[in-house]
Automatic annotation (TrEMBL):
The modification N6-(pyridoxal phosphate)lysine is found at residue 198. Pathway: Amino-acid biosynthesis; L-leucine biosynthesis; L-leucine from 3-methyl-2-oxobutanoate: step 4/4; Amino-acid biosynthesis; L-valine biosynthesis; L-valine from pyruvate: step 4/4; Amino-acid biosynthesis; L-isoleucine biosynthesis; L-isoleucine from 2-oxobutanoate: step 4/4. InterPro entries: Aminotrans_IV (IPR001544), Aminotrans_IV_CS (IPR018300), Aminotransferase-like (IPR036038), B_amino_transII (IPR005786), BCAT-like_C (IPR043132), BCAT-like_N (IPR043131), BCAT_family (IPR033939). The keyword Amino-acid biosynthesis applies. It comes from Rhizorhabdus histidinilytica. It comes from the Bacteria. Its EC number is 2.6.1.42. Its cofactor is pyridoxal 5'-phosphate. It catalyses: L-leucine + 2-oxoglutarate = 4-methyl-2-oxopentanoate + L-glutamate; L-isoleucine + 2-oxoglutarate = (S)-3-methyl-2-oxopentanoate + L-glutamate; L-valine + 2-oxoglutarate = 3-methyl-2-oxobutanoate + L-glutamate. This is Branched-chain-amino-acid aminotransferase. Acts on leucine, isoleucine and valine.
């Protein structure tokens, strides 16, 4: 389709006074902007009827395919307030990953120009919702099957939408480091499954383990591989890195069972350009414990769009717990986090062309 959007401004937008109050302490994922994007797809016709309109409830048939067969994918990305405008971070990478997820879930591609324009249109019309300081506008592009039928087959109709939420820190209290629970009862994904797709089913499968982690006084869950219950894969919603005493870093490899994080990819690029050796290789839970206790491992951090880069200070499991380094944010973690967030917010030079300004 030609990316032409019909703009239908919200007739009753949030007042400037009410918006300011909401932005004082937005938390994460609870404060939403005034508008949303909706684009329709029908097999044989393609993408059409692109609109920016007032955010509001959807009306869908109870036999809509997504409610029964879970054909649904999404992305997570952010818009940042710079000193002289607004910007997105690597939206082309989000568009590419969105389509990888779509193909795995037997859904149609969303053309990159349509994906990016949809996001930019929403940022432009809701630009006053982008917080300053350490806040950002979290953007949620998503697609779901809305054909009305009961039968196991790919849908022939879809909605592609984008909504936005003004956000602050992902972890409550702005913690210096988090505590994680290693799950030995549950796994997130298996070889040949949907682990590398950003689909809702992966997250639904992680929720019981995350609940268990919270009951154990932890912030997040760490999943091991499904085959051997030995190798570290990822957290409930983030990739993970291990920093060794020789300055090198290890991160689990992309083998189809973990999400190819855009923050993960950016960290690897930044680290290697600093001269840091980054090995993408399997790393076991037993090795993690041994290296932390011997001092060979000095830092561990998780990364993702929502939390950006967050140090892991303490690890708990059924067999006890251990602390990494001094239990806080290490030098390498802090340096890479500051460089990445500096690029995102325009305070550090961007030699990679990662920042896309939104006019």
């Amino acid at each position: 389709m030609t990316s032409q959007f019909t703009i239908l401004p919200n007739a009753a937008p949030t007042s400037a006074e009410d918006r300011a109050k909401l932005l004082e302490n937005p938390g994460f994922g609870r404060v939403f902007t005034d508008h949303m994007v909706v684009v329709r797809y029908v097999e044989g016709k393609g993408w059409h009827d692109a609109e920016v309109k007032a955010r509001g409830p959807l009306q869908i048939d109870p036999a809509s395919a997504v409610l029964h067969y879970a054909q649904e994918i999404f992305e997570g990305m952010k818009a940042y307030r710079l000193g002289d405008g607004l910007a997105l971070f690597r939206p082309e990478a989000n568009a590419a990953r969105f389509n990888l997820s779509a193909r795995r879930m037997a859904m149609p591609d969303v053309p990159e120009d349509l994906f990016i324009e949809a996001v930019e249109q929403l940022v432009r019309i809701d630009r006053d919702w982008v917080p300053g300081g350490g806040g950002s506008l979290y953007l949620r592009p998503f697609m779901f099957a809305n054909e009305v039928f009961l039968g196991v087959k790919p849908s022939s109709e879809y909605l592609f939408m984008v909504i936005a939420s003004s956000v602050g820190a992902y972890f409550k209290g702005g913690k210096d480091s988090v505590t994680v629970w290693v799950s030995t009862d549950y796994t997130r994904a298996a070889p040949g499954g949907t682990g590398s797709a950003k689909c809702g089913g992966n997250y639904a499968a992680s929720l019981l383990a995350q609940k268990q982690a919270i009951e154990q006084g932890c912030d997040q869950v760490v999943f091991l591989d499904a085959a051997e219950r030995k190798w570290i894969e990822e957290l409930g919603g983030m990739n993970v890195f291990f920093v060794m005493d020789d300055g090198s870093m290890v991160t689990p490899p992309l083998q189809g069972t973990i999400l190819p994080g855009i923050t993960r990819d950016s960290i690897i690029r930044l680290a290697r350009d600093e001269g840091i050796t980054v090995r993408e290789e399997p790393y076991s839970y037993e090795q993690w414990k041994a290296d932390a206790r011997s001092g060979k491992l000095v830092e561990t951090f998780a990364c993702g769009t929502a939390a950006v880069v967050t140090a892991i200070g303490t690890v708990k499991g059924e067999d006890g717990e251990f602390t990494i380094g001094a239990g806080g944010t290490g030098q390498t973690t802090a340096r890479l986090r500051d460089k990445l967030t500096g690029i995102q917010r325009g305070t550090v030079a961007d030699p990679y062309g990662w920042v896309r300004r939104v006019g």
